[in-house]
Amino acid sequence: MQFCTMKFTTTERNQMKAVYHAAASRGHVQFSWLNTYHTFSFGNYYNPERIHFGMLRVLNDDIIDKGMGFGKHPHDNMEIITIPLSGDLEHKDSMGNSEVIREGDVQVMSAGTGIFHSEFNANKDKEVKLLQIWVIPHTKNVEPRYDQISIRDIAKKDAFFQIVSPNKDDQGVWIYQDAWFHLGDFSAGSKGKYAMKKDTNGLYVFVISGKVRLEDYVLNNRDGLAITEAKELEFEMLEEGRVLLMEVPLR
Questions:
Q1: CA atoms within 13 A on the CB side of 192
Q2: What 3-state class would DSSP assign to 136?
Q3: What's the rounded Cα separation, in Å, for the pair 4 and 233?
């Protein structure tokens, strides 16, 4: 996939700032059952220049081996979004939830005052691939909550559709932060726009698959681009592919 060609007026273009994160520059940890890449510092990977992007704290790209996974472990005061890319992930938590999330689902946990949970590959014959994303909440010590939805009925071809927002009654799952996530599956040659919800927010573009041209940047599979001081983004897909947009407060 190739992403969009961004087109701005002179004023808007001069205001836009961007930092390119090549896929190969991410932290990489290989365990016997887990192959994981970290866009931002996490676990055994530490990069002082890659702590977070505003309130976007974690963007982990995980491959979990057959039947394996993360045993019971704690979280608090974090919004945790899980997007399976293929396979099935079994989730259990201290709130009594026991669910399987699959490609086409989105899961959110508001860890709040504290929860324990486990995540295992539900299949004994194939890997599960997923994105796990952490957003720092605007409100601490809330009552922990869990939600899971299918995005199959809201997905649109050749357009971004919303999967995360701060609004309980809006499309997708909601979190305790003024953040909006949009996902898009695009065919070659399609064009579109993304308008920022808040001028003070930043936008993190993550290429799930394909190859993208974005302004002066060429983004390949799993590359990221951290954009600030932009208002509206126009793009043209040069090849078929999938892109995730994460608009988050910068502070």
A1: 20
A2: coil
A3: 9
pTM (predicted TM-score): 0.93
Residue 229: how many other CB atoms lie within 10 Å: 15
pLDDT in tens, 191-230: 878 899 999 999 999 999 988 877 778 899 999 999 999 9
Q: What is the pLDDT of residues 63-79, one digit of tens each?
A: 999 999 999 999 999 99
What the block records as the tokens of 127 is: 């890997």
Return the CATH number of 10-249, one of 2.60.120.10, 3.40.50.11540, 3.40.50.10300, 2.60.40.10: 2.60.120.10
Question: Is the distance from CB of 221 to CB of 211 less than 8 angstroms?
Answer: yes
Torsion-angle region of residue 204: left (phi > 0), alpha (psi -120 to 50) or beta? beta
State the residue for tokens 């809201």. Answer: 154
Domain borders along the chain are 10-249
Nearest partner of 66 among 130, 120, 119, judged by Cα? 120
Instruction: Tell me the CA distances in angstroms from 143 to 67, 76, 107, 164, 239, one per residue in order.
Output: 31, 10, 17, 19, 44
Cβ-based burial of 194 (10 A; exposed 0-12, middle 13-18, buried ≥19): buried
